[in-house]
Amino acid sequence: MLKEELIYQYLDGSLDEQSRKSFEVSLATDTALAEEVDLIREMRTYGTHREKEKHAHQVIHKVRENYRPNSNTAQDKPKASKLTYIIVAIAAVALLAFLLNRLSHLQGSDGPALYAQYNEVTPLSLSTRSMEYDKLMTAAERSFNDKKYEEAITSLTTIIEQNPDQYKAMFYRGYAYIANGSTVLGREDLSSLLDTELYKSSAQYHIALSYLKSDELSLALPYLEAIPKNSNYHARAQEILKVIR
Amino acid sequence: MEEVNYMQGLIDGDEAIVEQIYKTFLPKVTFWIKRNHGSDQDGFDVFQDGLEALVIKGLEKKINPETNFTALLFTICRNKWISKIRLKKKEELVRFEELSRFSSETNIQNVLEDSVQEQDMKRMLKETFVLLSPLCQQLIPMVENKVPAKEIVIDLSMTNANAVHRRKFACFEAWRKRIEKHDYYPIWKSLRSC
User: Fold this and answer.
1) Predicted structure pTM score
2) Do B22 and A64 touch (CB under 8 A)?
3) Relative to the CA of A195, which of B40, B132, B136, B162 has its CA 20 to 30 Å away?
4) A-chain residues within 8 Å CB-CB of B14?
5) Do A60 and B51 touch (CB under 8 A)?
6) Range of the domain at A13
7) Is residue A138 domain-shared with residue A92, that is, in the same domain?
8) What distance in Å separates the CA atoms of residue B171 and residue B169, rounded to the nearest whole number?
9) Which of A91, A107, A123 finishes a domain?
10) pLDDT at site B108
């Protein structure tokens, strides 16, 4: 029996008594084996809970949108006159223009501002690849390109469930999650693409941007630095690196 | 009975119950955070973090199902807010008294606190798991949740139960190799040997 199988059976409690006792003797003297057992136990616990945790978190992210501050559905909003809103809006636009202007000169930039400046993605185009998914893909495309990210995530999730190798859908769902505020889920999607040839650099770049968005500049660094010279993202990554260093 | 349903509904991802939790508790948590130098947005963020943390604790069965859900939720949100503002060096401004009674009533404080090592271990597992192939990412949770091999064969378009068995070990092996390259792995090893 393979050592791994033995460990699994020990952890499952399915070894017969003699084998279990013998295994426990080894465990007491062999530190490498004890370490392996501990690690596999942790991995199995994580594997057991992962899907449930992911599902529960997705539901929380979905429901929370109804309760986001300033949304119309849940929380009390301060009462203000139309004039106040107009003044605030003008001030906000002026402030945004000022910030963008400052950013264009690469002076005093911070993470979220850099995210806003560099966060762009080509429109999603998934349809006509397969007749079977065509309707779903068209819906995903429309929602994504209209920046209706919550709807896009729903459609893209169905596509990914039906075809886990749909890396493009995975990439756009990751982007949509981040744009929609579900940064952790977005990073998870993008991280799953780091092994793919086609999406590696895009994933690195957008994971880095997600850290800029959350103002964790140091965590963005390794992803930006890893983007190779032949990537379309290299020049932009270098610009950002210059600023945040 | 209602309290148990909140926790179970949260873990199960029951949308109606999560909606009810938001409706019932978000205003109260936000009210407390606003009294302690936070904003509506802070309340919203902390509440979400608190719910996500409760899901993890619940799945790990670290929470007694009899524990009062309100106390759990308020304590975890309070802890998260205090940690956040400590980062901003404002801890002296927090009014601890409003919510401290919940934790003293139920003695749940320790249950909710992960050690730094536990957090790092979870981070290592999470960051390495997402680097596995999509097939492995589907297969591992299925085998660990005791989904019958016949169902796995159909769901993942595999050839037979033997292939599931072989693939399971291959996936765990691939995962372990990723873990061994993770920056926390040598630290975990050295902590273990202490």
Assistant:
1) 0.53
2) yes
3) B162
4) 59
5) yes
6) 1-44
7) no
8) 5
9) A107
10) 55
- The conformation of residue B88, written as its DSSP 8-state character, comes to T
Nearest CA in chain A to B192: A35
**A188 domain-assigned:** yes
CB B6 within 8 A of CB B17: yes
* Interchain pair B18, A69: CB under 8 A: no
Residues A97 and A117 grouped into a single domain: no
The ipTM estimated for the assembled molecules is: 0.76
B26/A74 CB distance under 8 A: yes
In this predicted model, which residue has the larger pLDDT, B15 or A88?
A: B15
Number of domains in chain A: 3
pLDDT at A73 over 60: no
DSSP secondary structure string for all residues of A140-176: HHHHHHTT-HHHHHHHHHHHHHH-TT-HHHHHHHHHH
Q: Give B98 to chain A, closest Cα distance, Å.
A: 22
- Sequence-distant (6+) residues with CB within 8 A of A142 are none
List of chain B residues whose C-beta atoms are within 8 Å of the C-beta of residue A61: 48
Whether residue A119 sits in one domain with residue A99: no
Please tell me if residue A96 touches chain B, with a CB cutoff of 8 Å: no
Does A122 share its domain with A183? yes
How many C-beta atoms surround the C-beta of residue B20 within 10 A?
16
Same domain, A101 and A208: no
pLDDT digits (tens, 9 = 90+) for A204-217: 899 888 888 877 77
Based on the domain organization, do A212 and A121 belong to the same domain? Answer: yes
Is residue B67 within 8 Å of B76, Cβ to Cβ?
A: no
The DSSP secondary-structure symbol of A66 reads G
pLDDT reported for residue A83: 66
Same domain for A235 and A207? yes
More confident residue, B128 or A146: B128
Q: Searching chain B, which residue's CA lies closest to the CA of residue A47?
A: B141
Instruction: Please report the number of interchain residue pairs, chain A to chain B, with beta-carbon separation below 8 angstroms.
Output: 115
The 3-state DSSP class for residue B115 equals coil
Asked whether residue A57 is assigned to any structural domain, the reply reads no
Query: Domain check: are A31 and A92 in the same one?
Result: no
In this predicted model, which residue has the larger pLDDT, A101 or A183?
A183
Flag if B125 and A46 touch (Cβ within 8 Å).
yes
Percent of chain A having pLDDT more than 90? 18
Residue A125's pLDDT band (boundaries 50, 70, 90)? low
The residues in A 201-230 lying below 8 A from B, measured between CB atoms, are: none
Contact A60 B55 (CB under 8 A): yes
A238 touches chain B (CB under 8 A): no
Q: Does A192 touch chain B (CB under 8 A)?
A: yes
Closest Cα to residue A60, out of B52, B2, B37, B116? B52
Pick the closest to residue B171 from B188, B154, B184, B158 (CA basis).
B158
Domain membership of residue A199 (yes or no) is yes
Residue of B nearest to A182 (CA): B48
